[in-house]
From TrEMBL:
Protein name: ABC-type multidrug transport system, ATPase and permease component
PROSITE patterns: ABC_TRANSPORTER_1, ABC_TRANSPORTER_2
Keyword Ligase applies: no
Matching Gene3D superfamilies: ABC transporter type 1, transmembrane domain, P-loop containing nucleotide triphosphate hydrolases
Organism of provenance: Singulisphaera acidiphila (strain ATCC BAA-1392 / DSM 18658 / VKM B-2454 / MOB10)
Residues that span the membrane, as ranges: 64-83, 159-181, 256-274, 294-313
GO-annotated molecular function: ATP binding; ATP hydrolysis activity; ATPase-coupled lipid transmembrane transporter activity
Annotated signal sequence range: none
Sequence ranges assigned to domain ABC transporter in this UniProt record: 345-598
Lineage: Bacteria, Pseudomonadati, Planctomycetota, Planctomycetia, Isosphaerales
Compartments it resides in: Cell membrane
Record-linked Pfam families: ABC_tran
InterPro entries the record matches: AAA+_ATPase, ABC1_TM_sf, ABC_transporter-like_ATP-bd, ABC_transporter-like_CS, P-loop_NTPase, Type_1_exporter
Superkingdom of origin: Bacteria
Length: 604
């Protein structure tokens, strides 16, 4: 498994992988864009030669030489303009196409990872936060690379022209090396400072969103914390930007020194040609023109190299890291998901600690969940109820122990296939702001456009009253920020999420993790009782006629609801404290009876 302490992949191989990704997306456009970038470099780099020929021809009264130089200047100017326009248009087209491909690639990589560890682990979040910022402009990496090759070609032609005057002028390249080295070194130093300050930058963005968006608006105003948010946001930004500014000042000093070295070498070259050798006026003009352009070309080259190493190349390294991480986290799926449950689900000494922590959220959990039963999971906050559900959904793997489904290891089953046999709703549901029919239909992609399936799911969830209040029914756009969109209350969103979870007709496992907290106790109890009855009845699979043997997992803080479950699992301090039916647990007078009594007293 990948570790955040591991270095990211090497720069050049990462860039090569990104180039291959761009070639796979748009092979013809990439080749044409690269070819035009190189062609556009030639006319411009020959201008010094035409100036030399023009000067020598004019002084020697050689009309033919002057004519050649004039035609060359005109052709270079025209070709430079024409090829630049063609190159820009082609590159723009290539960038538009490859941007979509790269964004889709990064999104697909993150979604393909079986677990959600990379979405919750702070070290990974820092890398992913930077990658999300970079992926939208990562297409510039290709243009930067093409431009770098074009500038290098200009440099090569210019150095060849200088060497044609005297071989010693090749030493100008040595004087230029410090500028190249400093430009390649600078971005890494600055990027390290940015990486170090990524948590502060994320905090600054979070505070800015909190202070400027609608959802927290009421509490921001009622509590009067706006000024505090602004101050905290500024402090977080300073913690992020301070080290970056310091790094930039340090690298700027060394770059200034490097350019001073090159400037001294250029002045020496001009003096050498003017005074040290027998050179024609055209030769001197060529050195002046080519030398001045050499400084411009070196500046452009090291600038592009700086971008490549500092931003674009760094982005490709992060994308390569994500590719490697997704590959490392790929599952070893060699066990099929059973079509129906006969033995049920068993937890064998399962323990779990969240990544980068040592505290066990679940410790040595042993459970037997039988087909056709309703199992309620209760416990105080932090006891591990939702974590147990996450393990069942394979959002995480147990730290130790294993989960068996009909005697087969769940970890070796294809996650997508297993999740396709799950249904239900969760307390931290997402608000999909689509039309109501689509928001619900997403629960079963195969029947996304099946209106009758959506209507049935609405009925199962008891969400008829919600859809009935919408003017356009299931065709109502949800969310007030969209054209003709409607405001939806939290309780309404919760019922729509519940309906989405009930789109699948014959799940092996139905999970209801506090999905009805906004509903009143009576409505919640009636809803859960209806589904418990269906589970106990062993409803037949319509295609085979065989009983599905579904297990229903119910997580609720309301003990009046969970008392109707066949088995109640009581979690206390990460361990299973008690298991049994309501009457038996009450008779034991243990943890369950204590919690039940506390809640009952509160209702009295």
């Amino acid at each position: 498994m990948s570790s955040p302490d591991d270095p990211m992949p090497p720069a050049l191989p990462s860039m090569w992988r990104a180039l291959k990704r761009g070639y796979e997306a748009e092979p013809r456009l990439l080749v044409v864009a690269f070819g035009l970038a190189l062609l556009a470099a030639l006319p411009d780099s020959l201008l010094a030669l035409w100036f030399k020929m023009l000067t020598d021809g004019a002084l020697a009264h050689q009309r033919r030489l002057v004519l050649i130089a004039a035609v060359g200047l005109g052709a270079s100017t025209t070709a430079t303009w024409f090829l630049r326009v063609m190159s820009d248009r082609t590159q723009r087209r290539f960038r538009d196409q490859v941007t979509i491909a790269l964004e889709s690639h990064v999104a697909r990589l993150q979604a393909a990872v079986v677990t959600v560890e990379h979405h919750e682990r702070p070290e990974y979040l820092n890398r992913l936060a930077v990658l999300r910022d970079q992926v939208f402009v990562l297409d510039h990496m290709y243009m930067s690379l093409f431009s770098t090759c074009g500038w290098i070609l200009r440099l090569g032609v210019t150095v060849a022209l200088l060497v044609s005057i005297h071989p010693a002028l090749a030493f100008l390249i040595l004087f230029a090396l410090p500028t190249v080295l400093s430009s390649a070194w600078r971005p890494g130093v600055e990027r390290a400072a940015q990486e170090q300050g990524a948590p502060a930058n994320r905090l600054a963005r979070h505070l800015f969103v909190t202070a400027t968006t609608a959802p927290p608006g009421k509490e921001v105003r009622v509590t009067g914390i706006a000024d505090r948010l602004v101050a905290d946001r500024r402090a977080a930004w300073d913690r992020w930007y301070g080290p970056i500014a310091k790094a930039r000042w340090g690298t700027a000093f060394w770059q200034m020194l490097a350019w001073g070295i090159f400037g001294a070498g250029f002045l020496g070259a001009v003096a050498f040609v003017s005074l040290g050798i027998r050179a024609t006026p055209g030769d001197v003009l060529l050195v002046l023109a080519a030398g001045s352009r050499l400084s411009a070309y070196i500046g452009a080259t090291v600038g592009e190299i700086g971008f490549l190493f500092g931003f674009w190349l760094d982005g490709s390294r992060r994308m390569a890291w994500l590719e490697d991480y997704a590959t490392a986290m790929s599952e070893k799926a060699d066990t099929p998901v059973p079509p129906q449950l006969s033995d049920g689900i068993r937890f064998e000494h399962v323990s779990f600690a969240y990544p980068a922590t040592e505290r066990l959220v679940l410790e040595d959990v042993c459970l037997d969940l039988k087909p056709g039963t309703v199992v309620a999971i209760v416990g105080e906050n932090g006891a591990g109820k939702s974590t147990l559900v996450k393990l069942l959904c394979r959002l995480y793997q147990p730290t130790s122990g294993r989960i068996l489904v009909d005697g087969l290891d769940l970890a070796r089953m294809p996650a997508d296939t297993w999740r396709a046999r799950l249904a239900g709703a969760f307390q931290d549901f997402f608000r999909f702001e689509f039309k109501a029919r689509r928001t619900i239909g997403l629960g079963d992609l195969s029947r996304l456009d099946d209106k009758s399936a959506v209507v049935a799911a609405v009925e199962r969830a008891g969400a008829d009253d919600v859809v009935g209040r919408f003017a356009a029914g299931l065709e109502t756009q949800l969310g007030p920020t969209w054209p003709e969109g409607v405001e939806v209350s939290f309780g309404q969103w919760q019922k729509l999420a519940l309906a989405r979870g009930f789109m699948r007709d014959h799940p092996l496992l139905l999970i209801l993790d506090e999905p009805t907290a906004a509903l009143d106790a009576e409505t919640e109890h009636a809803l859960f009782e209806r589904f418990a009855a269906a589970a106990r009845a062993g409803k037949s699979n319509g295609s085979t006629g065989a009983p599905v043997g579904r297990i229903t997992i119910l997580v609720s803080h309301r003990f009046s609801t969970v008392r109707m479950a066949d088995h109640i699992v009581v979690l206390d301090g990460s361990r299973v404290a008690e298991v049994g039916a309501h009457e038996a647990l009450m008779a034991q007078g243990g943890k369950y009876a204590e919690l039940y009594g506390i809640q009952a007293a509160a209702y009295r």
